[in-house]
Amino acid sequence: MVIEELIDRDLTALTEDTSLAEAIEVLSIHRISSAPVVDSDGKVVGILSEKDIVRAALPGYFELLQDPTFIPDLGQFRFRLRRVSREAVKKYMTKKVIAFTENDSDFHVAMILIKNNIKRAPVVQDGTLVGMINRADLLQHLMSEGKNDA
Amino acid sequence: MIVTVTLNPAVDEEYMVPEFHLGGWFRASSVRQLPGGKGINVSVILKQLNYDSVAMGFLAGFNGEYIRDAMRRMRISTNFVHVKGETRTNVYIVDPVGHMETGIAAMGPYISEEALSRFTINYDRMLKRASLVAIGGSLPPGVPQDYYRTLVEKAKTVGVPVFLDAAGPPLFAALELVPTAVRIDHRFISVTLGYPIDSVDKLVERISQIHAQGVGWAITACATRNGLGNIFYTPNGIYVAETDVDQAVSMIGAGDALMAGLIVAHKEGMDTEMTVRFAMACLWEEIAHPGHGIGGIDRVKSLISQVRLEKLD
Q1: Closest chain B residue to A29 measured between Cα atoms?
Q2: For chain B, which domains are there?
Q3: Model's pTM, two decimal places?
Q4: What are the chain B neighbours of A29 within 8 Å (beta carbons)?
Q5: pLDDT tens figures, B56-69
Q6: Residue A14: which CATH number?
Q7: Chain A residues with CB-CB distance to B68 below 8 A
Q8: Alpha carbon of A28: minimum distance to chain B alpha carbons (Å)
Q9: Contacts B79 to A, Cβ<8 Å
Q10: What is the pLDDT of residues B30-41, one digit of tens each?
Q11: CA-atom Rg of chain B in angstroms
Q12: How far apart are the C-alpha atoms of B72 and B92, rounded to whole Å?
């Protein structure tokens, strides 16, 4: 089955010059963990996830550490988050976007989402955003298919 | 792509209350909850007529989540700006015995400058993909009264036709920019103009003035001797079109069905008379049952020939 019927056709998106502060507000108020970044024609040029924002606010050496237990509190993180919040999305977004088309099969999409540990990915038509595919919706779809077989 | 704009959506709650009257206490025979607002209704009906659209505007709170989820289930594309507060609830009491409807509309959430700016950016982006824009409904608190004018101007600048369904100062400010088609909400027309519109002749006179401003299609509802009518001032003359009121169950969304029909007729290049008939058939099919929406294109087609049409001299 193709993913056309599983797509969330919400076109909520950020632009490259959106500030991180506004991006955080959009993610929070829309209750989404990531948002596509589009140009003025609606073409997908990147994706910004909560993970990208957290990474932007963490000290550079953080990834070298085995675990975060030595950090005493969130003060330093909050300070850095506020500092980077004024910067533009384009600096922190993931530019290499994994995107799908409406005619991709559910199996193909599920495999790529699982393999890359992605919760949601853009669906495009000629590069233009037409919606998002969510891992949870794919799982739900697989569950309901299984019920009919059982 | 057709873009619909609903700046002040609502959750429409429709209570069927036989023999409803003021001051009484009633138990509803049925209750329906539906996503509402003119542009949203147009998107829903367009979908039922096999046309895709993107619904834009503002959503807030629990009601906003409900509307977005309902649109998603109908597989209608959305691009709403979510704001703080709560999307309004509009209450309709339909009396199927007395053939009377009572409506109460709430104000809607406050729209901040930042949220409006975010919407404008999204609208500009959508215009690049749009083949037609349908704007409708009231303005929520915080949105300037001439904002529809801004939206019409932006669409016209990039050559996108605009269909506008509004009332009051937001409508009249936008008229100066000459939208492709306007539907004037008949419920507010007398209030807006400041003088009573108590006859078809007076309505025609006023619609003629709007047409004279350059608006190709100007439409408003009117009561006629034989049923429910609409006056269409078209580029090829004035038409009064009627349906039977006997089959009317609920008038909620009637004007939105008419607008959706007008849009489809425009997209399919129908001639003037067929456009009027098709739009009225959509309205007729909409009012023949409770709630929003139509039963599909085939039911609309079956009503086209039954629409009564008179071309005025």
Answers
A1: B82
A2: 2-312 (3.40.1190.20)
A3: 0.89
A4: 82-84
A5: 999 999 999 999 99
A6: 3.10.580.10
A7: 10
A8: 10
A9: 10-12
A10: 999 999 999 999
A11: 18
A12: 24
